[in-house]
Amino acid sequence: MSTKLLNYTNQSIKGAIQVPGDKSISHRAVMFASMANGTSLITNFLAGEDCISTINAFRSMGVNITQENDNVTVNGRSIAGLKEPLVPINLGNSGTTSRLLLGILAGLPHHFTLFGDASLTVRPMDRIVVPLSLMGAQIDGREQGKYLPLAVRGKELNAITYHTPVKSAQVKSGVLLAGLLANGTTVVEEDAKTRDHTENMLQAFGVKLEIDKNTVSIEGKQQLTACDIQVPGDISSAAFFLVATALAKNSKLTIDEVGLNPTRTGILDVLKMMDVDIDVVEEKTIGGELIGSIKVQSSDIKATTIEGDIIPRIIDEIPIIALLATQASGKTIIKDAEELRFKETDRIASVVENLKALGANIEPTNDGMIINGPTKLKANKTNSYGDHRIGMMVAIASLIAEGTIELSDAACISVSYPRFFEDLDKLIN
Ligand SMILES: O=C(O)C1=C[C@@H](OP(=O)(O)O)[C@@H](O)[C@H](O)C1
Ligand SMILES: C=C(OP(=O)(O)O)C(=O)O
């Protein structure tokens, strides 16, 4: 296991940066291009481990995909042309690959076996297996298909109307993709709007959808037509440097070409609520995705309460928001975020354990955490437990913690941000 020593104490962040491509959009680009007729070019693809798992899954179904750094060319085979893989599909660490792919495989006339790493194997799959079974899917695994490994025997599927009990873009997307292969019109309703990259990109590939507030309808048996995709920078990766700059002394940073899809920009709302000095410029829309730049500088931070419908819009940013809250004046309360318990780690437990080890005043609750600040942080032993976002949060904590932090399992950061430390080192002076 890789241990990294982190000593960035009192460094400033300065300059301009473009973060790597968006993870959610990169996954979908490979999936939809593989299912399309024709050749699609994906630029600024995130070559992180999770998205490579998606590429490998479609290669095993006979799709010719060439990847050179962040350029990916996909020779789509059409949905009907996807072949039965001869080997089990390894989903690695990727929840997104698992839930979306299950939606596609459930309706193909083949047999599939799927497995993942130790973390993915204990993440819930019943949230997608249950609605797919209602559509006629045959999926089996431990505890009625609650967990990987799973066996899928593809079937003719029928449309459903499904109200998602969890606020999850992965569930919404998996059901919509099954709906694309099914007979009839599938409708997915959600209580709060989750990220809508599936809806945006399916339309770019020529699929017709109806969207009415938090309800999406898709008619089955539509074909996808190849489409070039330019992936915007990942705001979830940018979030680490936004918070780093707000926390570090004499710091000023511009992040260019970053995705500003409103279903993803909850972090910008939270930064404003906490008095962080940021300025956002919206520049263009490509493939239904808004792109622009964000400027941020060192700030005096104020505590806040974060709850309700904003949670799905910041779900992956909560670990780094928790670090910011340790330096805010007052009590920050994060609630309605029980979904954090089902990520690469139980992120309520792993955030609290690591920030406590660094001296923060933070307590877990059932559905979030309470943080009292500001507290001076001090180096200690920390552990990502294989969770990329926990690893990056600890690395950013090192800018304000006194001494050298020891981070166990730092290598997992390459799941979503392989060049994270190179970028951090470039910005420090
Ligand atoms: O659809 C997606 O690309 C994602 C949805 C979210 O998961 P949930 O749908 O489980 O909330 C998010 O945490 C994950 O990083 C990516
Ligand atoms: C939760 C995440 O990803 P996934 O669910 O795809 O593993 C994440 O990237 O923080």
TrEMBL record:
Reaction(s) catalysed by this chain's protein: 3-phosphoshikimate + phosphoenolpyruvate = 5-O-(1-carboxyvinyl)-3-phosphoshikimate + phosphate
CDD domains assigned: EPSP_synthase
One Pfam entry name: EPSP_synthase
GO annotation terms (biological process): amino acid biosynthetic process; aromatic amino acid family biosynthetic process; chorismate biosynthetic process
Keyword Isomerase in record: no
Origin: domain of life: Bacteria
Residues that bind 3-phosphoshikimate: K23, S24, R28, S168, Q170, D316, K343
Domain Enolpyruvate transferase: 10-424
Cytoplasm as UniProt keyword: yes
Subcellular location: Cytoplasm
CC annotations in GO: cytoplasm
Positions annotated to bind phosphoenolpyruvate: K23, G95, R123, Q170, R347, R389
Pathway membership, UniProt: Metabolic intermediate biosynthesis; chorismate biosynthesis; chorismate from D-erythrose 4-phosphate and phosphoenolpyruvate: step 6/7
Function: Catalyzes the transfer of the enolpyruvyl moiety of phosphoenolpyruvate (PEP) to the 5-hydroxyl of shikimate-3-phosphate (S3P) to produce enolpyruvyl shikimate-3-phosphate and inorganic phosphate.
Quaternary data: Monomer.
Family from the record: Belongs to the EPSP synthase family.
Protein name per its UniProtKB record: 3-phosphoshikimate 1-carboxyvinyltransferase
Organism annotation: Saliterribacillus persicus
Lineage: Bacteria, Bacillati, Bacillota, Bacilli, Bacillales
